[in-house]
Amino acid sequence: MAFDPQFLLNGVIVGSTIALAAIGLTLIFGILDFINFAHGEYLTLGAYAALVANVALGLPFVVAAVVAIPITVALALALDRVVFYPLRREGAGALSLLITSFGLSIILRNAVEMVWSSDPRRFDVGGAEAMAIAGVRITAVQIAIVVVSLVLMIAIHLLLTRTTLGVTMRATASNRSLALSSGVNTERIVTWTWVIGAGLTAIAGVLIGLNTVVRPSMGFGLLLVMFAAVILGGIGDPYGAMLGGLSIGIAQEVSVAFISASYKPAVAFTIMVVLLLWKPEGLRGADT
Amino acid sequence: MSDDGLLEVRDLNKYFGGVTAVDGFDMTVERNSITGLIGPNGAGKTTVFRTISGFHDPDGGKVVFDGEEITGKPVYEIVEAGITRTFQEARTFPEMTVFENLLVGKTGHRGEKLLPTTAGPKAYAEDERAAVEHADQLLGYMELAEKRDQRADRLAVGERKLLEIARALMTNPDLILLDEPMAGLPSDLTTDIVDYIERIREERDQTFLIVEHDMDTIMNICDSITVMEAGQTIASGTPEEVRNDERVVEAYLGEESA
Amino acid sequence: MLEQLSFMTSVATVAGIYAVLALGLNIHWGETGLLNFGHVAFFAVGAYTTAILTIPSPTATQAYSFGFGLPVVVGIVGGCIAAGLVAVLLGIPTLQLDEEYLAIVSIGLAEILRHVMMNENWLTGGVAGLYGIDRPLRGVIPPEAYDFFYLGLVVLAVGLCYAYSRRLKQSPFGRVLRSIRDDEEASIALGKHTFRYRMQAFVVGGVMAGLAGALWAHYATALTPTAFGANITFLTWVGLIVGGSGNSKGAILGAGLIIAFREATRYLPDLYGLGDIIPTLRLILVGALVIVTIRYRPDGLLPERDISYAEYCKRVEYGGE
């Protein structure tokens, strides 16, 4: 069977959006030292914020997408204040935070469903006509998705390497024993982590909604894939998350050539489990 | 066996990524001794400690205990062979009582297997009785009997250190590895711990290996001291010999000026 | 009156099945500190296994290809064993790592199993599901008394799981599990093979969830993938946390409360015309309940109790008084 490059292209499109969301997840995991199970819902919220601005308020799509970012960030910060900060202050363990985020995930997902119903929705945007370039079909929207993702990844790279804040974040995220415990200005770093993490995730939600549809379960459905990307890339490593997201996206889409499309998540899952079996000591972080 | 030391460490190597933490380290712990392992920060003491106790796999070299090679074995086999370690920060089980903390230390307990547990308490009553007797006896010995039914997290720090040593004794070890047992203690408590260690060595025929950063703390208690720097043994001998060794003085001076 | 009795019986039966689920999760999380976020996977495997083992061979019109027509008892035992095997497979890559990895992998496995249920028609009947599942002693018990009989069966299962949980907790085995939960590295330092203990606890809890699934299959008599969503895991967790993790009585109490809450809110739409927002509103409340409990009452309604030496003596019967 000849390999169809179309699958690879689809993989790059899906993978770059997953990568964006995974950067947020891995930074929060690394810096706040807990896995945020509500991360997928931030993605959903971003998509719905843009949807409301675009479809209900009639704003142009690009404006709506930009508006979605501060809304999602504000929500994430408010939720952190109300839900996570009190636990952090009391020195609750990572597992309390994790279970709390699990509860938060249920609340957000169902709140979205209550307000907008579970019907899939679409953005009001043109550019859906596929054009053929070098034997593969791609729409203008899809080109935009890849370009936006790449630009954002480069921006994140600059932020993490050229600013004091970024360097501190990277150092904190990659060393879990250092996370939060070392104490200098940590709440400020926490705030910025949410801003960057939720902002990127909101854009990922908008782009994924653009590529497919917007629905209340979209973020939860991607949680597994995002986790797989984070684990593949190494916890707390934003570059790893980019690479992990792209690889998982490509692996999933290419797998469609061989197995039923409904098993796409199983591909991410299998990669994750194989990795856990193969390199567990690397995943536990460096020991001393 | 070349020596009749209880523990022989030969040419031990351990790397983390590209960094060499332990680089051909040698040491001997004589039976029924209190031996110290000291060195400046970053010398590799902790890595050696963790490798002997089975928490790290070495990348080279040999650890021989009581004539049996234990290099790279899992912790449960090393404990069975007769080496039990403690932690610098006295890690007791916080939500369990002092007594239960000790009972967990019992090794080879039938009641810790799933099948006898399923069969019911009668299937392991004998082992449990032995564990209870042993624990009570140790509580008396370490003067913790009054605290018996208190939760471990309500103990004072000195008591937690004693509890941890008592819990290590529950495993019937031949060699106890102590990780900075005096760290974080006021001086009167330090004296207490030293007294206990000496008493246990004498009355219960135990051997101790103490890892310590500060040389003065263990000068008086150790029969023999090994000093390491940059992953290597730089001196070993009696406290007197080590104290006057040029390389040791240099290593510690270097640290002070840094 | 009779209608109400029948309603109460069905609520109690479902609550009992959730109590078994919660007792299983309590062994995982409450006793051992294992973050299992895919509890529904064991439940589903137990249910589908007993269904496949006990339904008659398929006719030409049916989607599934296997049906062994075995006795219900064989089916239930098979369901438990299958759930235990899933626990082993899930445990191998995760139980040597930090707690978070089990959470991630278990939630993933549950999701993938749901896809398998929906897509593998030959095995699970696909979206249409499996139906016509036999009920134990169907011809023997008079139909009007059958629901009571089944409730009795479920209560028996709850009783057995409760008794076994207690036996584990009070044994030296349970003591080691708690030591792992408290400080795994310290437990390792005492020579405990903690991976083996975690695995055993994981299997025991998984088998209990499998039993709950088998009981559900023979109660519902039909299985469809939609009945095995992540919400089952959520509800079990909420029940355990609210009731008191680490306490078997708390697990049962919590499961009972959460099912009572679910059933009680079922009739709100008719009363207040709230229509179809009730299912989502209910889950929002349940999620809020988790957050509030973790924040203000992390030990739940029935906190785990410290065990004194006197209790040990009584239970191990070597007369320590």
UniProtKB/TrEMBL annotation, chain A:
InterPro entries: ABC_transp_permease, BCAA_transport_permease. It is a multi-pass membrane protein. It is found in: Cell membrane. One of its GO terms (cellular component) is plasma membrane. GO terms for biological process: amino acid transport. It comes from the Archaea. The chain crosses the membrane at residues 12-35, 47-79, 140-160, 189-210, 217-236, 256-278. Keywords: Amino-acid transport, Cell inner membrane, Cell membrane, Membrane, Transmembrane, Transmembrane helix, Transport. Coiled coil: none annotated. Belongs to the binding-protein-dependent transport system permease family. LivHM subfamily. This is Branched-chain amino acid ABC transporter permease.
TrEMBL record, chain B:
Probable component of a branched-chain amino-acid transport system. It comes from Halorubrum yunnanense. It comes from the Archaea. This is Probable branched-chain amino acid transport ATP-binding protein LivG. Keywords: Amino-acid transport, ATP-binding, Nucleotide-binding, Transport. The keyword Nucleotide-binding applies. Belongs to the ABC transporter superfamily. CDD domains: ABC_Mj1267_LivG_branched. SUPFAM superfamilies: P-loop containing nucleoside triphosphate hydrolases. One of its GO terms (biological process) is amino acid transport. PANTHER family: CONSERVED COMPONENT OF ABC TRANSPORTER FOR NATURAL AMINO ACIDS, CONSERVED COMPONENT OF ABC TRANSPORTER FOR NATURAL AMINO ACIDS-RELATED. Residues 7-255 form the ABC transporter domain.
TrEMBL record, chain C:
The keyword Transmembrane helix applies. Pfam families: BPD_transp_2 (PF02653). Its main location: membrane. It is found in: Cell membrane. Keywords: Cell membrane, Membrane, Transmembrane, Transmembrane helix. One of its GO terms (cellular component) is plasma membrane. It is a multi-pass membrane protein. The chain crosses the membrane at residues 7-29, 35-56, 68-92, 148-165, 201-222, 234-259, 271-294. It comes from the Archaea. This is Branched-chain amino acid ABC transporter permease. It comes from Halorubrum yunnanense.
